[in-house]
Amino acid sequence: MATKLPGARRALDYMQADLQDIIEHSHEPGLVERLARACLRRLSEDFDPLLNRAAPATEQRFEELAQRIAVLEAESATRKVVQFDQRRKAE
């Protein structure tokens, strides 16, 4: 089962509470607008950093993989590959 980061769990709980308040106060347009703005602010302040947290590690991993590929290509260029051709004799 997937686990959520503590910050993500808190942000998600706040977002759900704000959305529930919007539903309960749908007859008050001013309050609904304030709650909707709070939801948008929470998305940019709480969720964006959580989503971008893995980006530097991912970029570093791509660079490491690119370096490994370059090393393997260089090694394969210096190695001789012998290929045997096996054919069946005609009967």
Detailed description of the structure:
The chain is mainly α and 91 residues long. It has one domain (6-77). It has 3 helices and no strands. It has helices at 6-24, 29-52, 55-78. The longest helix is centred in the middle third of the chain and has 24 residues, at 29-52. The model has no long low-confidence stretch (mean pLDDT 78).
Question: Which key phrases capture this entry?
Answer:
91 residues; 0% strand; 3 helices; elongated; mainly alpha
Q: What's the count of strands?
A: 0
**Shape assignment:** elongated
How would you classify the helix and strand content by structural class? Answer: mainly alpha
Number of domains: 1
Rg, please? 28 Å
β-strand amount:
under 5%
Number of helices: 3
Could you tell me how far the N terminus lies from the C terminus, measured between alpha carbons in angstroms?
Answer: 61 Å
Oligomer: single chain
Largest sheet: none
Catalogue the unreliable spans: none
**How would you state the average pLDDT, rounded?**
78
**Order of helix and strand elements from N to C terminus:** HHH
Assign a percent range to the helix content: over 70%
In short:
With about 90 residues, this protein is an all-alpha fold. The protein has helices spanning about 5-25, 30-50, 55-80.
